[in-house]
Specification:
The complex is a heterodimer of chains A (about 750) and B (about 350). With about 750 residues, chain A is of the alpha+beta class. Chain A is about 25% helix and about 30% strand. Chain A contains 19 helices and 37 strands. The termini of chain B are far apart. Classes of the chains: A alpha+beta (about 750), B alpha+beta (about 350).
Chain lengths: ~750, ~350
């Protein structure tokens, strides 16, 4: 929201700080300023001038004008405006002389847009007076930082802050004495006082709809609003000044003598001021006449009853609506307006009549001859004063960490219009002004903030807390993941982070079912609509991307797989995915080696390949009796050149099986013996299976079995291979005799023969 | 006569030892001279004919010659051994400027690096590190943080909604609530993690980024304590003394709420383009925990109080390394990642 410095200064007669220092003070004490924009710079030099004569310039659409610039004297200027005509009262800006079309032009005649008064650049400004138009500075406040402050959505509220910061007097632009007495000319019927706590209205006649005076146009333009006509501009002006949104209806276009504030009917049609047609439902609060909706409460007025050139009678609405109801409607129809933005912050119901009083004053000036019809129409729910809040100096010190003088607390709170009574020494009873009581200030901690910010947080000295020393509870899962990261980095893998979003296309590419994925209902783009239930599509993208620049590389990611569950939150499972790419040779055994560093003793058990896996190079990783993941090469379909070996592990499972269960065993005192066995097996027989079979026949005296080598070729029969293992046998109690060793060996040979394997002895 | 033969044999053998060109030749000399059937042994056979005195004397002469010869043989052998070792060592020359085989060390993601640094720092200050789910309920992400439905503060964080009614957490603050529920007061915790906002991506905006939430709850926790922790934290992060300031900021889960600025580390205060000529850089939102938030999590705000802060981890990483495009962080490009 933009605040006009001149506007604020109008309400603080003693203000001498310039806009720059003021912006810094507001930032430190109230709300974040995002910058200052100078407006109306040309107005510093501009003056009113009368066009005396106009001569065409041959061969140009420009004219040569002689103007009477008052104190500056008679000036000759070249002007291109179509409305430059003798007798016109406009604005003259002195500039350096320059020659245009052979004519020396001394200064310029300016358009409203050039002056910053309005957005009109079709011609030079046509004015009555430039009074009230001076260079200004618009201070831009971050809207987020005033989300909790309904009062700061108007200049008066900000002026109150400034006055409190600087210890200056604040004037009130609203004079309630201007409100008419007597019976109202229109009836108001509120169906639900929770949704509409107050609705106030005035009726005017003999209205002239015309452009606003320049000072009013300028005020609105300076803060980024668009001047339209005097009536609409007045409602925007009051909104920007008092934070009270208003709406003007053409009274002659309303049906009946009553304004109804009621939930919309199912399917009720509504044409808004912006030309859009909306279909309402009972969750929307409607303002209606006897014929139907004439406005959407707190959001936008109706097109059918809008102020137009022919309007002569006006119903002026100044109401209060429930914040959440306005917000719901506004987000449901996707229309945010200056009014809805204010109402959703919970505006002050006391403010409706203040807005009307200000309107009466303004309308008398900008619509000469206007007359009020009847008294104030005003319906409201009973308004109880909010309970007083008890604030002790002790609490204040406990929260701020510094002591504060009672007089200082009182001065600060009173400068912000809180009522302060010292009920006992060091304890205040504080009443909250209505405009802070809707949502903003309700507890003593809210008051701590008021006092703290006005004291200045820089007055608080950092201090270490006195707390017992304690070892914080650990986070073994996170620690484990860090260990895994170290292992993979040490083995040459570089860590990547991928998004949690996947496209349907990439999910399908891996043969996953999009329907099993959690779907983002408002994705940033259509290719980021599914939550990843696998890290593979991400790492695949990394592999193909980096393969353009590198011959070989190693990558890994630790991230969450997100799986749909029947009820409640989805299951989030941490996974490790590591990829080893090489343009030339496969690296699956190197990846297996690294996996074994993490999972000592893991077995890779050949498994049926999934669609994205190389059908002859895929295995499940078995560890400690569980399936911990997969080791495979990506299917060549996925990798144009080269090979990518991939490891995918369920880290939650792996972590649960990890843990240091080391138990010392005495070193054996008796020597072990070793012997080799070579098994002849079909070429595609898995060495792991042979090893398992041998081990199972070796008996309890086997200490270890180790693969030594395999060989295929002459003199072996084609289609067979010889696989050699070294067995170590021994006993903790004695040295085995050669007979015992031979017996073990023989048993294995015989049992393997039973299974159909020849052994090379 | 025997003396002469011994003398002659000795001098002849010495000459042969000196002339031996190889260990094998030397061995032949040893066999010839002092071997079991060698010349000295031959000579000693003739000693039987001598008188006892003479036998004794000649025996001594023989022994002396044998010892001398053996010493010379050993010395010569050692020369050969040393030469052989020298030759072997020389033959084993390698070019140590050649690269070692095998992969180079990989690289941790820069966010991981900074996150770990902060985790270690906070653990050393007695904080526990907590995790929370990335998919959250409306309750934890908003309601329990004093952001009721239809509260305009919900606009401060553009939310990704999921089918089924859950959402992607827009901040790490829900872990505050989970931490309070699980561990209760007193509590010192941080929660680093991934958060999501429905924003379009450009060089400085991401829909996926990292935050580090922090919270301390104890009997008496004041703004002065918050300032102390923030200053300690930031001094450790930036490895230099930093000047901080608090100014009002609105976040529904804290009251009072602050924006914490640090004095610009580039210009030190006078103003420069980095701090937009203000001398200060906005770094993190923080505040005293709103009593409503404590109450919702079953903690009595009269008895306990706390502070909370939310550090933009991604932003900190970018500041620390001077990264100018946020998109690199999740781009998976090794040319970027290998720099860390």
């Amino acid at each position: 929201m933009k605040f006009s410095y001149n506007w604020i200064r109008e309400m603080i007669p003693g203000l001498t700080e310039a806009a720059g220092p003021l912006e810094r003070l507001i930032t430190m004490k109230t709300a974040e300023c995002e910058g200052i924009e100078e407006t109306g710079a040309l107005l510093a030099e501009a003056c009113a001038a009368r066009v005396e004569s106009v001569e065409p310039i041959p061969g140009s659409h420009n004219v040569k004008a002689i103007v009477d610039a008052g104190a500056l004297g008679m000036k000759t200027v070249v002007c291109g405006a179509p409305n430059c005509r003798p007798g016109l009262l406009t604005a003259y800006v002195p500039l350096d002389k320059k020659v245009v079309h052979g004519i020396e032009s001394d200064g310029m005649l300016a358009s409203g847009a050039e002056l910053g008064i309005n957005r009109d650049h079709d011609g030079i400004v046509e004015l009555g007076t430039l009074e009230g138009c001076a260079p200004d500075a618009a201070i831009e406040i971050d809207n987020k930082s005033i989300t909790h402050r309904p009062d700061l959505w108007g200049h008066h509220g900000m002026a109150r802050e400034v006055a409190a910061i600087l210890g200056l007097e604040l004037t009130d632009p609203a004079n309630l004495e201007l409100l008419p007495q007597g019976p109202a000319a229109i009836k108001i019927q509120i169906e639900d006082l929770d949704l509409c706590p107050r609705y106030s209205a005035l009726v005017f006649e003999n209205v002239t709809v015309q452009p606003s005076p320049l000072w009013l146009q300028y005020r609105l333009t300076a803060i980024g609003l668009n001047p339209i006509n005097n009536i609409v501009d007045m409602t925007n002006f009051v909104m920007a000044e008092l934070a009270q949104p208003m709406h003007a209806f053409d009274a002659d276009l309303l049906h009946g003598d009553t304004i109804f504030i009621r939930p919309a009917k199912p399917g009720e049609p509504f044409r808004a001021l912006n030309g859009e047609d909306y279909t309402l439902d009972p969750s929307n609060l409607a303002i209606a006449d006897s014929a139907g909706a004439i406005a959407l409460a707190g959001v936008i007025g109706g097109g059918d009853s809008a102020i137009g050139a022919k309007t002569t009678r006006v119903v002026l609405e100044s109401a209060n609506f429930q914040a959440s109801s306005v917000r719901k409607t506004s987000s449901a129809i996707k229309l945010r307006t200056d009014a809805s933005m204010r109402f959703e912050k919970a505006q002050d119901p006391v403010n409706t009549v203040r807005g009307l009083a200000r309107a009466v004053e303004l309308l008398r000036e900008i619509s000469p001859g206007i007359r009020l019809v009847g008294g104030l129409a005003d319906q409201m729910r009973e308004m109880a004063a909010p309970p007083a809040i008890e604030l002790s100096l002790e609490w204040l010190e406990r929260k701020l960490g510094r002591a504060t003088e009672p007089a200082q607390v009182r001065r600060i709170l009173e400068s912000l219009a809180f009522g302060v009574t010292e009920v006992q020494p060091g304890v205040f009873s504080v009443t909250v002004p209505s405009w802070r009581a809707t949502k903003d200030v309700a507890s003593k901690d809210d008051l701590v903030e008021e006092v703290g910010r006005m004291l200045g947080y820089d007055s608080i000295t950092p201090r270490a807390p006195l707390v017992p020393a304690a070892v914080p509870p650990g986070n073994p899962a996170r620690r484990f993941q860090h260990d895994v990261r170290n292992l993979f980095v040490d083995n040459g893998f570089t860590e990547v982070y991928n998004y949690s979003f996947l496209s349907e296309e990439s999910v399908r590419a891996f043969g996953f079912d999009p329907a099993e994925h959690i779907r983002v209902t408002n994705p940033i783009a259509s290719n980021q609509e599914l939550m990843r239930a696998s890290l593979l599509p991400g790492i695949w993208k990394n592999v193909t991307g980096n393969a353009k620049h590198r011959e070989s590389f190693r990558l890994f990611e630790i991230g969450l797989e997100i799986h749909r569950r029947e009820q409640g939150l989805p299951e989030e499972i941490p996974h490790l995915v590591a990829a080893l790419y090489s343009r030339h040779e496969g690296g699956i055994f190197e990846l297996k080696r690294v996996a074994e560093c993490l999972l000592p003793g893991a077995r890779t058990v050949p498994a049926e390949a999934r669609g994205y896996e190389h059908p002859a190079r895929a295995a499940a990783v078995h560890w400690k009796g569980a399936v911990a993941g997969r080791l495979f090469e990506l299917h060549p379909r996925f990798v144009e050149t080269g090979r990518a070996a991939v490891l995918d592990l369920d880290l939650r499972l792996v972590e649960s099986l990890s843990g240091d269960r080391t138990k010392y065993r005495p070193i054996r005192r008796y020597p072990s013996s070793a012997f080799d066995l070579s098994v002849i097996a079909p070429l595609r027989e898995h060495a792991g299976q042979l090893e398992a079979a041998i081990a199972s026949f070796a008996g309890p005296l086997m200490e270890a079995i180790q693969f030594v080598r395999q060989y295929a070729g002459p003199p072996l029969v084609e289609g067979t291979k010889s696989v050699s293992f070294r067995l170590t046998v021994g006993s903790p109690e004695r040295t085995l005799s050669s007979d015992e060793i031979t017996a073990i060996r023989t048993t294995i040979i015989l049992r393997m023969r039973d299974l159909g394997y020849e052994l090379r002895v | 006569m025997l003396d002469e033969s011994i003398q002659e044999l000795a001098s002849r053998s010495f000459a042969r030892i000196a002339a031996a060109a190889s260990p094998e030749a030397l061995e032949a000399v040893r066999v010839d001279a002092v071997g079991r059937k060698g010349a000295l042994a031959e000579i000693s056979k003739g000693m039987g004919k001598l008188s006892p005195e003479e036998r004794k004397r000649i025996g001594q002469v023989l022994n002396a010659a044998k010892q001398q010869l053996e010493a010379a043989l050993d010395a010569r052998k050692q020369e050969f051994d040393e030469a052989a070792l020298r030759a072997r060592l020389d033959a084993e020359w390698v070019d140590l400027t050649l690269p070692a085989p095998g992969p180079r060390r990989g690289h941790l993601h820069p966010i991981t690096r900074i996150q770990r640094e902060l985790e270690d720092l906070f653990v050393s200050l007695g904080f526990t590190v907590l995790d929370g789910p990335e998919v959250e309920t409306e309750y934890y992400n908003f309601d329990a943080l004093n952001i009721p439905p239809d509260h305009p503060a919900r606009d401060m964080q553009d939310t990704f909604w999921l089918d089924g009614g859950n959402l992607l957490r827009t901040h790490t603050s829900p872990v505050q609530v989970r931490g309070m529920e699980r561990l209760g007061p007193p509590l010192r915790m941080i929660a680093p993690g991934r958060v999501f906002r429905n924003e379009s991506v450009d060089a400085s905006h991401e829909h996926t980024f990292y935050q580090l939430e922090g919270m301390m709850i104890d009997r008496d926790v004041s703004v002065a304590h918050l300032l102390y922790f923030m200053k300690t934290l930031l001094t450790a992060i930036f490895q230099r003394d930093v000047t901080v300031r608090l100014r009002p900021g609105y976040f529904p889960f804290v009251e009072p709420g602050f924006e914490l600025d640090i004095q610009c580390l580039i210009c030190g205060g006078p103003g420069c383009p980095v701090c937009k000529h203000s001398g200060w850089v906005e770094l993190l939102p923080c505040g005293l925990v709103n009593p409503n938030v404590l109450r919702i999590s079953g903690i009595d705000p009269e008895e306990w109080g706390g502070f909370a802060f939310g550090l933009g981890l991604t932003r900190l990483v970018m500041m620390r390394y001077g990264i100018d495009d946020i998109r690199h962080l999740q781009g998976g490009d090794l040319r970027f990642l290998e720099q860390f």
